[in-house]
Specification:
- The chain has four helices and two strands, in the order H-E-E-H-H-H.
- The longest helix is centred in the C-terminal third of the chain and has 15 residues.
- The protein has a single domain, classed as Winged helix-like DNA-binding domain superfamily/Winged helix DNA-binding domain (Arc Repressor Mutant, subunit A, Orthogonal Bundle).
- The protein is about 50% helix and about 5% strand.
- It is mainly alpha-helical.
- Helix 2 crosses helix 4.
- It has a two-stranded antiparallel sheet with strand order 1-2.
- It is globular, with a radius of gyration of 14 Å.
């Protein structure tokens, strides 16, 4: 749990309150999208030198916590 507490912050004054990495303007969703596009951890770290490996791991842990639910129901839009 410390990865989440140490690396993921939510501040209404930063990125409209979206979860970000350590108060920086790197939203968790951006890192997850980079990973989903196929970028490796080392590629992300090379492109964003402010980040460290634990930031990426915290984003993955955050996503895992969000998806941990008992059931999901389809919503027709």
């Amino acid at each position: 749990m410390s990865l989440l507490q140490d690396h993921i912050t939510i501040d209404s004054a930063i990125c409209h309150g979206k979860p970000c990495i350590r108060g920086l303007r790197y939203p968790v969703v951006m890192i997850l999208e980079l990973l989903a596009s196929g970028m490796s951890h080392s590629e992300i770290l090379a492109d964003y030198p402010d980040l460290v490996e634990d930031d990426i791991l915290a984003c993955l842990q955050y996503a895992a916590k969000l998806s941990d639910c008992k059931s999901i129901q389809k919503v027709n839009l």
